[in-house]
């Protein structure tokens, strides 16, 4: 792979992402795995389609890694996001963060997923029995640049 | 010339993944106006914009050769 | 495997633990992986030995799963802990928690690791260049039964 | 008879993984006292106790056949 942040149209392998952050000085690795859920608010999803502005999305994932490094200097981060058609239970995203101590691994991993939902140009289209729709979770829906660190809370 | 990229719902509204326009010297805000009024791509108004893969504000002035992407509300993760 | 909570003297496989909690109604899986860290406060660890009161430890891991179910009714949990000699970077524990939404997966996973450090009869012995020592992190060092939910904070 | 289990540093101090003693009717606190004074296993004082794999307090009365485990401060994870 050679890099820690990537978009792929192939199934994601958790172990590959974890391997990128495993190191002698980490005692804790937190991973977040986003999977395709069947029911949302009682509505049944048949499958999802993810689309990315690939080059920019990989840059933004890497930028999230840099933001994490600023906040948690000892953290190592790797993030992979899948695109294309995903079935129920398929993995859409894998985040892995290693840190010397456990509290930081949870916080940094959480920071990563919140930031992905703000600044990374990836979109999902839900396909239901009675239609389909592009989903927009984005917090910043008006014009403007998503602020660094808004997700930290 | 400038390449203008559309994604997701915006791509569907535009009917194209990208178009070429010469918008050198214009602002992003002006380009949004043009796309919305002349091409009926009004979802650009709710979209963020990126020039050469970096987010920019509406005031940003476009230069020759810049690639402009309109980023509708993202939903990764 | 047939069960979600176990002690093993074999290397732990992250995917196996994750598979136990993957299901159609989960959109989020958080995993915590505890690995053997080389340096702690400047002191170099050569390797670790973990020992467990196996039957009771498995019961207590399962009990943590029940506590999580009470607090987060939609969560599914699996936990595996290794015993025996572990080298630097080896995995000592894998926790996986799936929930419909992401915030709960982080909180429940964090709850699990904190409770493991309180109530599960597993011990580690650090082997350094100049000696060895059984480590006791336990919060409750006097007599008494660890209270349910003290780790929640 | 009762089986008494020792773990980790406590096992090393005891020199045994387990011993058999008839402590039917005695309390955990009394057993700790005995182990500490008569067998010099004084680490039992800083340990929790479990009877048949459940944590108990010092007041717990031991019954025939109970397995008692002394649980020094745990350090899993």
UniProtKB/TrEMBL annotation, chains A, C:
SUPFAM superfamilies: Molybdopterin synthase subunit MoaE (SSF54690). Residues 134-153 are annotated as: Disordered. Pathway: Cofactor biosynthesis; molybdopterin biosynthesis. Its EC number is 2.8.1.12. It is an enzyme of class 2 (transferase). It catalyses: 2 [molybdopterin-synthase sulfur-carrier protein]-C-terminal-Gly-aminoethanethioate + cyclic pyranopterin phosphate + H2O = molybdopterin + 2 [molybdopterin-synthase sulfur-carrier protein]-C-terminal Gly-Gly + 2 H(+). It comes from the Bacteria. This is Molybdopterin synthase catalytic subunit.
UniProtKB/TrEMBL annotation, chains B, D:
GO terms for molecular function: nucleotide binding. Transmembrane segments: none annotated. The keyword Nuclease does not apply. InterPro entries: Beta-grasp_dom_sf (IPR012675), MOCS2A (IPR044672), Mopterin_synth/thiamin_S_b (IPR016155), ThiS/MoaD-like (IPR003749). Pathway: Cofactor biosynthesis; molybdopterin biosynthesis. Belongs to the MoaD family. Involved in sulfur transfer in the conversion of molybdopterin precursor Z to molybdopterin. NCBIfam families: moaD (TIGR01682). This is Molybdopterin synthase sulfur carrier subunit. It comes from Halobacillus alkaliphilus.
